[in-house]
Each structure stands twice: as C-alpha cells, then as structure tokens.
Specification:
Blueprint: H1 2-28, H2 31-39, H3 48-58, E1 66-70, H4 73-78, H5 81-84, E2 93-96, H6 104-113, E3 119-125, H7 141-150, H8 158-170, H9 174-177, H10 179-188, H11 212-216, H12 232-248, E4 252-257, H13 270-284, E5 290-292, H14 313-329
Helix pairs in contact: 2-3, 6-12, 7-12
C-alpha cells in the first residue's frame, strides 16, 4: 500500500507539472494574449520582458526580410521601423526590441528568443553599455557562462549573484519571468489601447526635451553612473558572442555606434572613453559585419536631442532614413 500511494503521488505530481507546462506554453504562444499585453504595456522598465516576448510573438512568421533592432532605449526611441523598411523589398517585417538600459548580454538573450529565422539584425551600442550589469529579466545559463569566462564572477557582489540566481530561476516559467511587468501592467491599466500592438512602443516624446540648464549643468562633469562597471569585459564578450551567433547563422549583422548629443563625451571618464574607442576600433576592423560609425549618421543638431542620448521626432526620422539607406546600399 505505501508504494502504491507513493506512486500515485508521483503520478499526480507529474500530471500537475505537465498541465502547468502545457498551460504556460498555450498562454505565452498565443498571439491574442500578446496583443492584449502590448495594449497594456506599462511605462515602467518591468514591462520590457513581456514587451519583447510579445513583439517577437507578433512578428509575422516567415516574413522576409526580417529586420530586428536590438539595443537600449536609444534604439527603442531613436529608430523607426516604418522608415527603415522603405529600403527593403515589400513584404518584410521590422521589430524594435530595444529595452531600457539594454546592453549586449541582454541583446544576446533576446536574439536567441528570435529563433533561427533569416534576418538582418541591427545592434545599437553607445558608451553606456560599459556601465551595465546583467538585467534579471534577460538572464539565462549563457549569461552566467559569460560572467564566469570573463572573470567577472570574482568581482560580483551578493546583489549581483541574487539577481543572476533569480534570472536563472525565471527560465523555468515565462509567467515567473514576466511577473513584475504583469503586476505593473494591471496596476496601470493603460487608459487607451495601442492601435498597432506591434509599434515601437516609444516612451519619450518631444515634450520630454530637457531645458538648456540641464545640459549646462552637466557638460564637463563626469557622470558616475556611466563609469566602467565590473561587467564591462563581460558586456564586450557578450557583444562578441552575439555577433558570432548571428554571423554563424548567416544573418546579416549591422553594428551601429549610436550618435549622442554634443557634450555627452565630456560626461565620460577617460577610462570609459578609451575603452569604448578601443571597442569601436576593433569593430571597425571586422569584415563579417557592417559597422556604422556615428559620424555616418550625422550631422545632427543639438536641437535634435531631448537629452544627451535620446533624439526627438526629427532626429529619429533623420537617423532612420540615413541608417536605412546605408543598410540598403550594402
């Protein structure tokens, strides 16, 4: 009898786990659910995880060519899919997967979620990537491997390990990974649904433009939030791995040194400027990618920026037109 009872419990547990896994798959592979989520995507960064997952789910399967935009909020706010697609053959699709504070390790995770679909991938970088730690919503075993191989594990703090452990735990369940975004989405209850749930979901507008004194108070002053982090080498390794993954799969890979407002460079410490310049030189020497220098996307006026790193509507149009023309001409 005890063995029979134990077997029944094991069977019940197995069935329960199977039902849970099945319901998770059914929910997070559902395009109607994805559209609903994007209509209620919160303004908080917590919405980035399910926002990315939903946009990927809504990308038309088999669309050719697929243009995938990876990066931080500079690309989310600064690139327009509709404009970029003008230089591509009809029938293609574009998905903007830029996230707040996004860095190469996050992009590496997101790119794998795209699967093997043929694509052109645009990877936007700027000096801020050297200050970023892994984001818990975009962590998996490859993130931990990069931390270990780069040697950053020896300098990781207890909070770093808790974040990475939480990220690994979230690989068990999409609902677990998206729980904070779901909480904020239902808390905010967006007042009006988005007309097009596959839009770029920009979170800034021209009304967010900083006043002149904002820039005057910051030019020439080092921003401690943009210093080299203990994960700088790991982020560079993540970028190398991302490029290797995309080029090995035969995907066209474009790396963009995203333009910033004049004066931004004066807020960076010398070691940050030197390391980023070294990274750009290394990227420029590669023959397996299309590397786009910031100067190739200029000129931009100071008035085309709302702050040091984000452009306004005119800047977005100019950057998208110029980048689209460069990609189409290569």
């Amino acid at each position: 009898m005890p063995s029979s009872t134990s077997g029944s419990r094991t069977l019940a547990l197995g069935l329960g786990l199977a039902l849970f896994a099945g319901s998770e798959w059914a929910l997070w592979s559902n395009r109607t659910w994805a559209r609903f989520l994007l209509r209620h995507e919160p303004s908080a960064a917590s919405g980035d995880t399910f926002g990315v997952a939903s946009r990927i789910r809504l990308t038309e399967p088999g669309a050719a060519p697929l243009l995938a935009l990876l990066g931080s909020s500079v690309s989310r706010e600064g690139l327009d899919c509709a404009i970029l697609l003008r230089g591509f053959p009809p029938g293609g699709a574009c998905v903007n997967l830029g996230i707040g504070g996004g860095a190469p390790l996050d992009m590496l995770y997101i790119s794998r979620e795209l699967g093997p679909a043929p694509r052109t991938v645009v990877i936007a970088i700027f000096p801020g990537i050297l200050s970023k730690a892994p984001k818990s919503g975009f962590i998996d075993s490859l993130t931990i491997r990069a931390v270990a191989v780069s040697g950053a594990w020896s300098r990781a703090s207890p909070d770093d390990w808790r974040r990475m452990g939480s990220g690994l735990l979230q690989t068990l369940s999409p609902t677990l990974r998206h729980r904070e975004g779901l909480r904020d989405a239902f808390r905010e209850r967006a007042q009006a649904p988005r007309e097009d749930p596959r839009s770029d979901a920009r979170r800034t507008s021209d009304e967010d433009r900083k006043p002149p004194e904002y820039f005057a108070n910051r030019v020439g002053r080092i921003d401690p939030d943009l210093g080299l982090s203990r994960f700088a080498a790991t982020q560079e390794m993540g970028l190398d791995w991302l490029i290797a993954q995309e080029t090995r799969a035969g995907h066209r890979t474009v790396v963009v040194d995203f333009p910033t407002r004049p004066g931004f460079e004066t807020t960076l410490a010398e070691d940050v400027r030197a390391r980023y310049a070294s990274l750009l030189a290394r990227l420029k020497s590669r023959s397996d990618i299309l590397f786009v220098e910031a100067t190739a996307l200029g000129p931009l006026a100071e008035g085309d920026f709302i702050d040091f790193t984000h452009v306004d509507s005119n800047g977005r149009r100019l950057l998208s037109e110029r980048l689209g023309a460069l990609i189409a001409s290569q």
